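// run 5 | inverse folding | seed 20
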């Protein structure tokens, strides 16, 4: 592995993974609630006219967050492997 594939810092990768995980869970729950047309979300003066479309948008956003989370997780893994490689060859 080369350090040229490390695009973000390790701390940013970890934070991105945590935030993406929370975002995916939140959006999936919100999408499921809109899909089930829960009364508190689909009725009222500011309610969406098409709750099924809103649920699909939540699922799409969750998929985007999932992709970002996978990217950040891979970056964190690559950072740990790079640190192991540097420690292994630091005595030479």
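// decoded
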């Amino acid at each position: 592995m080369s350090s040229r594939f490390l695009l973000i810092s390790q701390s940013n990768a970890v934070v991105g993974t945590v935030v993406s995980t929370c975002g995916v869970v939140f959006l999936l729950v919100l999408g499921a609630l809109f899909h089930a047309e829960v009364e508190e979300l689909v009725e009222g003066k500011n309610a969406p006219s098409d709750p099924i479309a809103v649920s699909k948008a939540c699922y799409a956003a969750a998929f985007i967050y999932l992709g970002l989370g996978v990217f950040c997780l891979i970056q964190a893994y690559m950072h740990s492997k790079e640190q192991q490689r540097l420690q292994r060859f630091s005595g030479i």
